[in-house]
Amino acid sequence: MPLKKISFLFLFLNTLFLNVTFAQKVNEVDQIVAKYPKSLNTTEKLAEKIEKDFNSEEDKARAIFSWIAFNIKYDYSAFLNPQRVQGFSYSSEAEKQRKIKQLNDNLIQKTFNSKKGVCEGFTALYQHLASLVGLKSEVVKGDSKTRLADIGRKTISSNHAWNTVLIGRKWILVDATWGQGYYDGSKGRMVVDFAPIYFDTDPDFFFAKHYPDSGTFDGEKINKNDFLNGPLIYNSTIAEGYKIKSPDTGILEVKNGDKVTVEIKNLTKSDQIFYLNKKNQPVKVQNPKEKRGGLEFQIGIDANIGDYITVFIGNNSAVSFKVVRK
């Protein structure tokens, strides 16, 4: 790979939404939804179309995800300049719930009609459309892990939202906001890039990048330390099913002369693997060994290693670690 291209890729590493583009699978549901007419100008008409075209719960849930990803754009300006929280008074619990519902309904209609919003709008619209087609969906608020600076962060914040959807007896994870694209720091704008990996995401991958305020999913506790201190994974890792077996932490406490052993499942020797040194120069991994359905290799720590190590597989970043000098 030309050095110029590799250096350009490295510029993505400190953007807000850390998602490198690459080809992803578009299934039959997505292809049908992509051709939906613009005349579906109410949520009820859209829901009727989805119910007519799809029978299974999973296909309906996927169709909602796809439609939102194809049609709703992330409003980065609104993210940077959030509106004041709208307060209200009430005299009873019933009045309080009515006013909360009205605010939520207004958010849904605003997102649907303007075709833009932030994660609160994406998730409220998803839940609303799900209810119209007979699906049970919940909005989950929590933290997100998208930047190198998030590795080893000390505290949890509530800065993102996503959905869970009940398919049969199983709750699946859906992030329609991340499904529509990512923020390109080099261009200073959002880039539309459909990411179906954020529909029914493997929980192991999902919770490496998300942490719910409740600390639980489907009755199971999510390890907060694993979220805060784990490595940063990228879209290609999720899409290709690359399991990071070693190191088991995202924080590498090392000194010059040490060797860090990296093991990634679902890789073969035909895969091109490299990392960038602190001068943005590519360093090809030497002598990777096949191990347990993947590859194991070593990265030597020297003066050319910067504050982070990002491993690339082919053209795509796969995983990043934070380097802490002893």
UniProtKB/TrEMBL annotation:
Residues 1-23 form the signal peptide. Gene3D superfamilies: 3.10.620.30. Residues 111-178 form the Transglutaminase-like domain. The keyword Transport does not apply. It comes from the Bacteria. Keywords: Signal. SUPFAM superfamilies: Cysteine proteinases (SSF54001). This is Transglutaminase domain-containing protein. The lineage of its organism: Bacteria, Pseudomonadati, Bacteroidota, Flavobacteriia, Flavobacteriales.
